[in-house]
Amino acid sequence: MGVFLKTEILPECHLGVWEITEDFDTLYSMVNLVAVEKTKLDSFKNISRKVEWLSVRALVKTMLGKDTRILYNAENKPFVRGNTHNISISHSNNLTAVMISKDKRVGIDLEFMSGKISKVANKFINERENIISDPELSKFHLYLHWCAKEALYKICDKQDINFRDGITIAPFHPDEEHGHMEGNVINGNGEESFEMEYLQHDNYALVWCVKA
Fold it and tell me: Model's pTM, two decimal places?
């Protein structure tokens, strides 16, 4: 299927989501890899990991109109070669999501809502956060908290952050498909607040954040 969502959130700031229905050979034919990228691709033993990796390159190529070299730092945070863009990447099940911006910090997370999240909620929900009691919405609410924390963890470069207590999502009511939320991060650099946006697609939760 390929891209089913591609939009410009802000000038020079793009959001894209790719539904993976293609096989390895089809995705490989969509991108032009240099030697170091081929070596990286060959290092993955699992074919599904190879397909995910290729889907990111295919999606970014569609978003920017050209092949783009994506590298990773010591903390496994992705960056574009030459630091021409900030980028954030997420995979879950059959979807790949990317945010990319020339001049803004970005963070994105995507999760397939399997229904098992309530069993580990105490590991990432702190005492300042509230989950709705409505059983029809509580799973979605928990996944939005998880995705929001992952997105903020990424936008803050994964540096010196306690995932449960250092990231707090302000109380909000989870609308059915699309809405906004706010979060706060405390780490060694101090305290910072963020505005986030979320979207539900089928059984997926998607949260993203953009900040200068």
Answer: 0.93
